[in-house]
Specification:
Length: about 350
């Protein structure tokens, strides 16, 4: 491979040989002006794993409450109880939202919410049971590690016992949010009330030990440094070496509208593609890298499929967290629109379930 940036040649030697990249390699990739060089290497790795296939899932997002006691500065979705836009859905209301879509082949329910101190532990197990009853054929992918930690404190149970109770009630997978960027500096500045790196990793390790796969994410494009990004990726890679429980990684592009960080400009397309490509190259033990079209837009998500991503996430139906923060992408897409996006990018669309089994 020819590179504009000669610093990439030694990284390419390792990528070709299937060798693990170091912190310094990660820094060289992020710092490189050679976007296409970084992208071509990521595409090489992506094609070795997934050929010409690009995945999507028929999923439905459910955000049961926006009331949250953490109030992270980067979040526009969360609010306090009693404010005009605060809401909390009862179990019956959540059921009704799922039932509105019974004519659609939803395979996964992605459910996350705020830390609402007015809800008790039974609400959460009741919610999972009700969802499993209404949609037995869909996988319930719910709660970030932050919510799991909160539920353990709420229930008075250990982490392992909490996870066992939730699994019994229907929890089958967990999304990857809540770690943001694993740096004490960023944590203290942007989300001091939220659990930190060590607890996030402990929750994930416990969940993986219970046989529940999870995803992982990184929120980029705010105050984090390139060093903090690379060390976040290496920390995830280390945990994956121990547990093998991570399914996919999703870089999340920060949207600042309606947040306390509204002075921060949107991420650029080059940085969005770099994050996809660098994560594919650094996370050699993750099968899947998602280009989350909600955050980077439908058009760039198509391009990201040639920069290391093999999955566009899903139809979603109604996205709230990023749209409250100014996302201009659609709130949801149809199955046909997902397939058109993927074909238009030169890939073969494959509808999957939560565990990447192909849907015939
Ligand atoms: O943890 C919050 C992020 C996450 C903003 O696992 C923001 O399949 C951008 O984790 N701008 C939740 N991002 C979303 C998430 C996710 C999304 C899609 C798929 C999966 C998966 C997981 O959203 C939070 C936080 O990092 N977030 N506010 C914002 N203003």
């Amino acid at each position: 491979m020819e590179f504009i940036d000669s610093a990439l040649a030694s990284v390419w030697d390792k990528v070709k040989a299937g060798q693990r990249l170091t912190f310094e390699d990660g820094m060289a990739l992020y710092a490189s002006p050679d976007l296409s060089g970084v992208g071509r290497m990521a595409d090489f790795v992506r094609r070795k794993r997934h050929g010409n296939i690009a995945y999507y899932v028929y999923n439905q997002h459910v955000n049961y409450t926006n009331v949250c006691s953490n109030r992270c500065t980067f979040c526009a979705f969360a609010t306090d109880e009693g404010t005009g836009n605060a809401y909390t859905w009862s179990v019956e209301e959540v059921k009704a939202r799922l039932m509105e879509r019974m004519d659609e082949p939803v395979r996964e329910i992605h459910m996350v919410g705020g830390l609402n101190e007015n809800l008790d532990f039974d609400y959460f197990t009741g919610l999972l049971k009700a969802m499993a009853e209404v949609r037995p054929e869909a996988t319930i992918k719910a709660f970030t590690a932050v919510e799991i930690d909160y539920l353990s404190r709420l229930s008075g149970l250990s982490l392992a016992e909490t996870v066992a109770e939730l699994k019994d009630a229907g929890l089958a997978m967990m999304p990857g949010g809540g770690a943001e960027v694993m740096s004490e500096r960023v944590h203290d500045e942007l989300f001091p009330k939220k659990i930190g790196r060590d607890r996030w990793l402990e929750v994930m390790e416990t969940v993986h030990a219970a046989g529940i796969p999870t995803n992982a994410t990184m929120l980029y494009g705010h105050i984090e440094t390139l060093e903090e990004r690379v060390s976040h990726l290496i920390t995830l890679r280390d945990l994956q070496d121990r547990t093998g429980g991570f399914s996919s990684f999703i870089p999340l592009a920060f949207h600042s509208k309606n947040t306390k960080l509204s002075h921060i400009p949107p991420t650029g397309g080059v940085d969005d593609l770099k994050n996809v490509a660098v994560s594919r190259l650094m996370l050699d033990n993750f099968d899947h890298i998602k280009a989350y079209w909600v955050m980077i837009g439908e058009k760039l998500a198509q391009v990201a499929l040639s920069f290391g991503a093999d999955d566009l996430d899903g139809t979603i139906i109604e996205e709230r967290i990023t749209h409250t923060a100014g996302a201009t992408s659609a709130k949801g897409l149809t199955r046909a629109e997902m397939a058109v996006m993927i074909r238009g990018a030169g890939f073969e669309p494959v509808e999957r379930d939560s565990f990447y089994n192909h849907i015939a």
